[in-house]
Write a structure and sequence with these properties.
Layout: H1 11-28, H2 32-36, H3 45-50, E1 55-60, E2 66-72, E3 75-82, E4 86-91, H4 94-97, E5 103-108, E6 114-115, E7 126-131, E8 139-142
Parallel strand pairs: 1-7
Antiparallel strand pairs: 1-4, 2-3, 2-5, 5-6, 7-8
């Protein structure tokens, strides 16, 4: 509150300290990636180098065999095939984890392909994708 004389309750020294404090907080909010020149959303390269491998596990409950791809921008990365009524896994390439997210594509033999929602993954996390017989009822988990 202001007193009747129009003097701020913090006074000039208090306002100056508050301004310095707010400037310090704002500077501290800048991420280390922005300061280091790394792209936002990615891990610094030295952190990625020592990180655990990310893995994709696919349970194919569909009657058809599936070819599994990772989609990143216009790039289509062939990962592996999973036979009908089987579960299989593969380590995910590091290039999928850098930058933004990626999508998975299940391409059944003799039917229309199915795409997952965008996945944002950190190194060491695991993706579980369960493909149902009706593909649009499939589910995905990230741990």
């Amino acid at each position: 509150m202001h007193d009747t004389a129009g003097v701020h309750p913090l006074g000039r020294a208090g306002k100056a300290r508050l301004t310095v404090l707010l400037a310090a907080v704002a500077a501290g909010c800048a991420s280390s990636q922005e300061r280091s020149g790394e792209p936002p959303g990615g891990e610094p390269s030295e952190v990625r180098a020592g990180a655990a491998q990310s893995t994709l596990h696919v349970t194919n409950r569909n009657w058809l065999d599936m070819r599994i791809y990772a989609l990143r921008g216009s790039e289509r990365i062939n990962l592996f095939s999973v036979t009908s009524m089987r579960t299989d896994s593969v380590p995910l390439p590091d290039r999928i984890l850098t930058g933004g997210g990626f999508r998975l594509l299940a391409d059944p033999v003799g039917a229309d392909p199915y795409r997952s929602n965008t996945i944002y993954l950190r190194p060491g996390q695991t993706v579980w994708w369960r493909l149902e017989n009706t593909l649009n009822q499939s589910s995905i988990w990230v741990y």
